[in-house]
Write a sequence for this structure.
């Protein structure tokens, strides 16, 4: 057996991607809350419609949420 191939290599892209999505969701949630919106209702509206107008542009929340594919967003939630 070749010693070069005797150990399993862990690929951690999913964990990093999950952390990235969580950071964005935390920021968007906080931004919506700070502006007086119900974050859950606004996020649901965005997920269902795909219309970024449901997300405030405050603290760049809208531009950040658009970086995440909606399917990934649903999966993370």
């Amino acid at each position: 057996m070749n010693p070069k191939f005797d150990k399993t290599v862990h690929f951690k892209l999913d964990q990093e991607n999950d952390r990235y999505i969580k950071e964005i969701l935390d920021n968007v949630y906080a931004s919506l809350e700070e502006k007086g919106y119900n974050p859950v209702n606004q996020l649901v509206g965005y997920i269902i419609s795909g219309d970024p107008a449901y997300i405030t542009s405050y603290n760049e929340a809208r531009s950040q949420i658009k970086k995440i594919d909606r399917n990934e967003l649903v999966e993370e939630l």
About this structure: The chain has a mean pLDDT of 88. The chain has one domain: 16-76. Residues 16-76 form one domain. The radius of gyration is 17 Å.
